[in-house]
Amino acid sequence: MKEGQEVIVVDNFFTGRKQNVEHWIGHENFEMIHHDIVHPLYIEVDEIYHLASPASPPHYMQNPVKTIKTNTIGTINILGLARRVNAKILLASTSEVYGDPEIHPQPESYWGHVNPIGPRACYDEGKRISETLTYAYAQQENMHVRVARIFNTYGPRMHMNDGRVVSNFILQALKSEVITIYGSGEQTRSFQYVTDLVDGLVLLMNSNYTQPVNLGNPVEHTINQFAEIIKDLLGGNSKIVHLAEVQDDPQRRKPDISRAKKYLNWEPKVSLNIGLQKTVTYFREELRKFKHSQRNKFVDEH
Ligand SMILES: O=C(O)[C@H]1O[C@H](OP(=O)(O)OP(=O)(O)OC[C@H]2O[C@@H](n3ccc(=O)[nH]c3=O)[C@H](O)[C@@H]2O)[C@H](O)[C@@H](O)[C@@H]1O
């Protein structure tokens, strides 16, 4: 990104209807953007980060049709905008394009193992068609595209109701509630801190590399181990319980990041321990604010 460049960052549900885009993703390189994006003829845009779509499984499953619309119609709309204004576009794809992988760790050359009619399909297939659309536009319209396959990412500014494992376990431990493991807990994930991801996205956008690139931290843990890590970090007396397993839950996930190392000179810098400490500090403060507002509400009502 160069000084004076205009960048659009599109986040959350987005289908290209008239709306103000007013988002930022917590990084000094991104400015708050105010654009009425249905009138692209009047704006100059150099780069577009297409981050639209819910990403937490309970959120994207809650309204699967809307998730599909965002990833199909929304992606077509934003690709059309990028074509009209001649902007470079980066698509935020996901490790979920690999589904429940049969190859471990997962390189970008792996085509994946996705159930096309399962509960995760709205997201997995939605992101797969987003990638297909991106490369079809690139080929047909001579566009400059970048595709990042993002693996499990966490950090401050996650929503308290996000529902993914990192925020769930931290909040449960902070509130001394039970820590909820879905299924046996032997499934694995590899967790990446948000600033590492943002560095990788910016490097990818600025590179000349056009094929998909995995962005994730390759340090892998079972969910059982992760629950113990959170308990050790926070102390407290939370008990661990095992609930029913989630349908089609990927059993092993770990990125092969050789491509990112080779073409972007990128690898994660923030250890799980440091990243979790920062995230815990954030959620402690969120809980304090929440309790404070609940107390005030009680006083106001009585
Ligand atoms: O980051 C990724 O690569 C992709 O995968 C994530 O999906 P998932 O890995 O299933 O994310 P979580 O909901 O955080 O679950 C991780 C694991 O922890 C388990 N889990 C989750 C929450 C919980 O309270 N307890 C629990 O055991 C899940 O069953 C799963 O095995 C999300 O879909 C996306 O953020 C993303 O695109």
From TrEMBL:
<keyword id="KW-0520">NAD</keyword>
<keyword id="KW-0735">Signal-anchor</keyword>
<dbReference type="InterPro" id="IPR044516">
    <property type="entry name" value="UXS-like"/>
</dbReference>
<keyword id="KW-1133">Transmembrane helix</keyword>
<keyword id="KW-0812">Transmembrane</keyword>
<keyword id="KW-0333">Golgi apparatus</keyword>
<dbReference type="GO" id="GO:0032580">
    <property type="term" value="C:Golgi cisterna membrane"/>
</dbReference>
<feature type="domain" description="NAD(P)-binding">
    <location>
        <begin position="2"/>
        <end position="278"/>
    </location>
</feature>
<dbReference type="InterPro" id="IPR016040">
    <property type="entry name" value="NAD(P)-bd_dom"/>
</dbReference>
<comment type="pathway">
    <text>Nucleotide-sugar biosynthesis; UDP-alpha-D-xylose biosynthesis; UDP-alpha-D-xylose from UDP-alpha-D-glucuronate: step 1/1.</text>
</comment>
<protein>
    <recommendedName>
        <fullName>UDP-glucuronic acid decarboxylase 1</fullName>
        <ecNumber>4.1.1.35</ecNumber>
    </recommendedName>
</protein>
<keyword id="KW-0456">Lyase</keyword>
<dbReference type="GO" id="GO:0070403">
    <property type="term" value="F:NAD+ binding"/>
</dbReference>
<keyword id="KW-0210">Decarboxylase</keyword>
<dbReference type="GO" id="GO:0048040">
    <property type="term" value="F:UDP-glucuronate decarboxylase activity"/>
</dbReference>
<keyword id="KW-0325">Glycoprotein</keyword>
<dbReference type="GO" id="GO:0042732">
    <property type="term" value="P:D-xylose metabolic process"/>
</dbReference>
<dbReference type="InterPro" id="IPR036291">
    <property type="entry name" value="NAD(P)-bd_dom_sf"/>
</dbReference>
<comment type="similarity">
    <text>Belongs to the NAD(P)-dependent epimerase/dehydratase family. UDP-glucuronic acid decarboxylase subfamily.</text>
</comment>
<dbReference type="Pfam" id="PF16363">
    <property type="entry name" value="GDP_Man_Dehyd"/>
</dbReference>
<keyword id="KW-0472">Membrane</keyword>
